[in-house]
Amino acid sequence: MRNTALAIAVASMALFAAGCDQTGKPAGDKAAESKSGDKAADAKKDVKVLGGMKTEKEQNSYLIGMDMGRSLELLKDDIDLAVLQKAMQASMKGEKSSLSDEEAMQIRQRLQETVRNKQVEKMLATAKKNQEEGEKFLAANGKKAGVVTTASGLQYQIVSEGKGAKPKASDTVRVHYKGTLLDGKEFDSSYARNEPAVFPLGAVVPGWQEGIALMPVGSKFKLWIPAKLGYGEQGTPGGPIGPNATLVFDVELLDIVKADGPESAAMGTAPKH
């Protein structure tokens, strides 16, 4: 968990600045530096209009402001934008701070605690919302024709059934898949990468282990995985899957990889959820 949203904004700006020289050009861009003043001025006239903004200065300023605003979303009720702007202007001008180092440290520590508390509150609220939505969805989905609910709570639907063997928990499998959240947002897809995933069946989340073990090679299944069989209360911290999220997968079992085969030696990673 990040200490503070402010740190994100500052780090983002620092990284941005590290890649630029004093003029705002990418560091090491000797060709740009060698241009005459007239050529540089002409180049500025050719800047592509983006978001209705005609100059690089406007576009740069908006981008940084947008990133900072998103980073400070948790603190939107704790910040006076006028004071924030005043402090930024003073700092950029090199003016003396109104706060001593000790005072700044006191405020920083208090603010970090505020952010931590807000992050926990947000996570708990999201977890509750996802849990309720998931339970409601699965209850209705389980009543649909062709949808099977197992004893664990996993739901699946056979799209097409192959004629091959079913994998065991100890097998390594090769699959194509697409994963989405209940709102349809895609968070992972081997199809998009144009590369099947190869992994030991025992290395993935319980919902995958159970679901794929039901599939004969050559099958295509749709899986609905409740949070307890997926990533649980934690989700994927910093990733696309929230706490208590119910997951939807379209899975195609291509084959079972032989332990001593060439594909096994070049084994890929488990699904990148």
What does this structure look like?
There is one protein chain. The chain has nine helices and seven strands; from the N terminus they run H-H-H-H-H-H-E-E-E-E-H-E-H-E-E-H. With 273 residues, it is an alpha+beta fold. Strands 1, 2, 3, 4, 5, 6 and 7 form a seven-stranded antiparallel sheet that branches. Strand 3 (172-181) and strand 4 form a beta hairpin. Helix 1 packs antiparallel against helix 4. It is elongated. The model is unreliable at 1-36 and 262-270 (pLDDT under 50).
SSE layout:
Blueprint lengths: L4 H14 L11 H4 L3 H9 L10 H16 L9 H12 L8 H41 L5 E3 L5 E6 L11 E10 L4 E4 H4 L3 E4 L5 H8 L6 E6 L21 E11 L4 H4 L8
Antiparallel strand pairs: 1-2, 2-6, 3-4, 3-5, 3-7, 6-7
Helix pairs in contact: 1-4
Oligomer: single chain
What's the total number of strands? 7
Bin the helical content.
Answer: 40-55%
Gap from first CA to last CA:
18 Å
- Gyration radius (Cα, Å) is 26 Å
Low-confidence stretches: 1-36, 262-270
* Mean residue pLDDT: 83
Number of helices: 9
Instruction: Please state roughly what percent of the residues sit in beta strands, choosing from under 5%, 5-15%, 15-25%, 25-35%, 35-45% or over 45%.
Output: 15-25%
Secondary structure class reads alpha+beta
| Pattern of helices and strands | HHHHHHEEEEHEHEEH
Main sheet specs: 7 strands, antiparallel
How does the overall form come out from the CA principal axes?
elongated
